[in-house]
Amino acid sequence: MMDSQHSEQKRVNTAAALSMLVIIASLYLAINYYPLPTPSEPTPSMRLVHAFRYMSFSLLPLMFGIQNVATRRFHDMKNLGFDPTKQKVTREFQVAERFLLNTLEQTFLHVVIQLSLATMLPADWLGVTPTFVVIFVIGRILYFIGYMDEKRPTNRAFGFALTFAGNIFSLAMSIGLLVWNGPNFEL
């Protein structure tokens, strides 16, 4: 039992480390080799508009999660449709609900952090916003796919780590830039 738990913990730690490498490599490439269109002279409002436009993609996993739960309820009206508090729920429905709740939590963090970060980034780094959005969406997809694997639920670790580490990295950048540049940066 202990060896199995240790093995699964190693998988989770490996997924977390790999996610950080993917995030750092993606940001490096976005900043240095694949600059995306950004406002030429970004005012604070233009920075927010720029970020908001990409945030619509960040909502796709949340919309999928809502639709997934609604579809499962619709197709099992006897057990889920009329009274979702019944105990006769399938594993797939529990996974769908948990995915939705976790995605709601992660999406809230992601959107708020990205908007904050967009107001603090140097103008030539504004391309990291769409990069973090892509990382977020891919992370949520991988999290869902991994969660559906009954035999190895730890397969969701990489998707979760990609999403959560992306949020942590963004928040650290935002706070670091706030401390470095001060709260009146480009105001």
**β content, as a range?**
under 5%
Oligomer: single chain
Radius of gyration: 19 Å
Number-wise, the strands total 0
How does the overall form come out from the CA principal axes? Answer: globular
Q: Tell me the distance between the termini.
A: 57 Å
Q: What structural class do helix, strand and pairing data support?
A: mainly alpha
Proportion in helices: over 70%
User: What is the helix/strand order?
Assistant: HHHHHHH
Counting DSSP H or I runs of 4 or more residues, the number of helices is: 7
The low-pLDDT segments are none
Summed over residues and divided by their number, the pLDDT gives a mean of: 88
Largest sheet: none
Summary, kept brief:
Helices cover 75% and strands 0% of the residues.
Report what the structure shows.
It is a single chain. This protein has about 190 residues and is mainly α. It contains 7 helices and no strands. The protein has helices at about 1-30, 45-60, 60-75, 75-80, 90-120, 130-145, 155-180. Helix 2 runs antiparallel to helix 5 and helix 6 (about 130-145) runs antiparallel to helix 7 (about 155-180). The protein is globular and about 55 Å long.
Which characteristics define this entry?
0% strand, 7 helices, globular, mainly alpha, single chain, 187 residues
Task: Give the helices and strands, then pairings.
Blueprint: H1 2-32, H2 44-58, H3 60-74, H4 77-81, H5 91-120, H6 128-147, H7 157-181
